[in-house]
Design goal:
About 40% of the residues lie in helices and about 20% in strands. The strands form three sheets. Strands 3-4-2-1-5-6-7-11 form an eight-stranded mixed sheet, with helices on both faces. It has a single domain, classed as 3-Layer(aba) Sandwich (Rossmann fold). The termini are far apart. By secondary structure, it is an alpha/beta fold.
Length: about 290
């Protein structure tokens, strides 16, 4: 099968895709900003000659490279913008010189759409990001879509919801951070708006869906999510009901936090026949924190 280049192979989302590619025995090259070795694979840097050689073969490219979080833009806007712009331009220049046969852009669903006030967000909804992180993810989508169109490269944009169950990044993502802090006896700051809802997807299931998509590609924008939103307060109450002494502190959210993130996955289901069907966030918390029950 065709070679795959995975940009951001050690990242929050990319590491799960990497594990899925390994499980399937695929021919792939992992790329990260720092390079180095993981427990299961090694990666090369963006400037490595082996990456240029791989791009000569016109592989499938999955762009999951990043590293910035919403709070990075809040804490140091100029630094975050500079990092975002430099990294994005580096990748764009690489792919302009050596266009792939297919480009999949990994994006962020909740921050792109903003609040889903009445119905779940669909791919044709007008984006309404409330944070600079969300705005720059939208810019990123547009830049890579333009690159693909200019070079006649089929383009898939996967707008992913909130992955959990990421063993390589236990300190990233609300559910995994909650599990990590409770296990370590640390205070978990429940910082979200009143009535906040999120769509959560089990990370290995997310990776399975993404790899299935590149194996039978249909260009377009797709929500990759569970299709079910959970009230964050119910997650907290669930943990407190089992662990009354858990160190959970409710704090004030930022003005840019999305209150209700709800995603429609009908397009993904109709186009690819794919649907997330694994663990829910509640089941994951039960398995990780209350195994003795």
């Amino acid at each position: 099968m065709q070679k795959i280049v995975l940009l951001g192979a050690t990242g929050f989302i990319g590491s799960n895709i990497a594990q899925e590619l390994n499980c399937r025995g695929r021919d792939w090259l992992g790329v990260s900003r720092s390079g180095g070795a993981d427990s299961d694979f090694k990666t090369v840097k963006l400037v490595d000659d082996s990456l240029k050689k791989a791009l000569d073969e016109k592989p499938i490219v999955i762009n999951a490279i990043g590293g910035l979080k919403p709070r990075d833009f809040e804490e140091n806007f100029e630094s975050a913008m500079t990092e975002f712009w430099n990294l994005t331009n580096t990748v764009l220049n690489l792919l302009r010189d050596k266009p792939p046969s297919l480009l999949m852009q990994i994006s962020s669903a909740g921050t792109i759409y903003g609040d889903a006030l009445f119905t779940p967000s669909v791919e044709t909804d007008s984006p309404a990001p409330s944070s600079w992180y969300g705005r720059m993810k939208l810019v990123e989508e547009a830049l890579f879509q333009q690159l693909a169109a200019t070079n006649n490269v089929p383009f898939i944009c996967a707008r992913v919801s909130n992955p959990f169950g990421n063993v390589n990044h236990p300190k990233h993502g609300l559910v995994d951070v909650l599990v990590d802090h409770i296990r370590e006896g640390k205070v978990f700051n429940a910082c979200f708006p009143k009535g906040a809802q999120r769509d959560f997807i089990y990370a290995p299931e997310m990776a399975r869906i993404l790899v299935d998509m590149i194996d039978r590609p249909v260009p377009g924008v797709f929500n990759v999510a569970s299709g079910e939103s959970i009230k964050l307060q119910e997650l907290i109450q669930f943990v407190r009901s089992k662990l009354p002494n858990a160190l959970i502190k409710e704090t004030i959210s930022t003005k840019t936090d999305v209150r209700c993130s709800s995603l429609c996955t009908e397009k993904l289901s109709k186009t690819y026949g794919l649907r997330a069907s694994s663990l829910t966030a509640f089941e994951y918390l039960r398995n990780e924190l209350f195994r003795e029950e």
